[in-house]
Amino acid sequence: MAHSLAGMENPMVTLDQIEAARERIAPHLHRTPLLSARRVGEAAGLPGLLVKAEVLQKTGSFKARGALNHLLTLGEEGRRRGVVTISAGNHAAALAWAASVAGVPCTVVMPETASRSKAAAAAGYGAEVVLHGTVFQAFERARELERSRGLTFVHPFDDRGVIAGQGTVGLEIAEDATTPGTVVVPVGGGGLVAGVAAALRGLGPGWRVVGVEPEGACAMYRSIVAGRPVRLEGVDTIADGLAAPMAGELPYRHVVAQVEAVVTVPDSAIRRAVGLLLSSTKLLVEPAGAAGVAALLEGVVPGLGDRPVIAVLCGGNVDLSTLAELIGPHDGV
């Protein structure tokens, strides 16, 4: 199911801010490759498909970009006091890693249902990890710690510095692709799609950005339909990295202004995409990272034409104990 978006204006993060973020964070991060995925593309009727392999980024996801950019712009007092966040996994690990790079104390609050491997990753980077209730209760707990300890809250997606950092993915795509095309971006809270869209649309009119959400966690899609950011009563998807129960205000404004469409896909398509990516590209991609490829396999991305198509593989942090259950029997096509 797709919902086309009107071309409203007034983006909140500028190309200049994204370029400044890249200069700031580049010494600490990988420049991830733009790879050919011919066999995956053929399965979707797109033999020239390219994938942006953020699975190879520090901490295993794009989240390291935004987290580090935010921390490197903190004032001295904020650095001394430390930071706190709420995350189901990838942002927690990314902020913990970024805090270790920047020398900032870090606390991450995660819902009790969070992946234990992702919680262990955050702890391994030196963060204090607090497991607490549901995602909504964890959010409130993080805000309580912000107030009681005087910490700086780093929102996982509704933050200018975070969005600017994520936008560096778009800069790299534009530099490595031969011609402008359609970039398909997984959407959770919306920080990545907002940053990529701000970067690419800032560079020129030839780029199209399409967001993809799981059917069971489509806060951004429902926000567009409602005409305002909404909060879901619950989420149900295997793509835990896209299971944000709300769309961020800043990402929502970017999406309305700069994103061509937001589409949704079933978990069955995401499972197929994970298996196909593993067998064909040898990249282990988590369900959230495979959502863009799932949308291409389902044929729900509008207006592709004959221009290049690039799917952002936004993360690769799969709990190996659940991998066989995740992909199931797979025939490679």
Neighbour order of strands in the largest sheet:
1-10-9-8-11-3-2
Helical amount: 40-55%
Strand content: 5-15%
**Number of helical regions:** 15
Rounded radius of gyration (Å): 18 Å
Question: What report would you give on this structure?
Answer:
This protein has 333 residues and is an alpha/beta fold. It folds into two domains: 2-61 and 161-327, Rossmann fold; 63-156, 3-Layer(aba) Sandwich (Rossmann fold). It is built from 15 helices and eleven strands. It has helices spanning 15-25, 38-43, 63-72, 76-81, 90-102, 116-124, 135-149, 160-166, 168-176, 191-203, 219-226, 249-258, 267-281, 287-298, 323-327, and strands at 2-4, 34-36, 50-53, 83-86, 106-110, 128-131, 152-153, 182-186, 208-214, 261-265, 309-313. The strands form two sheets. It has a seven-stranded mixed sheet, with helices on both faces. Helix 8 (160-166) crosses helix 10, helix 9 crosses helix 10 and helix 13 (267-281) crosses helix 14 (287-298). The longest helix has 15 residues, at 135-149. It is globular and about 55 Å long.
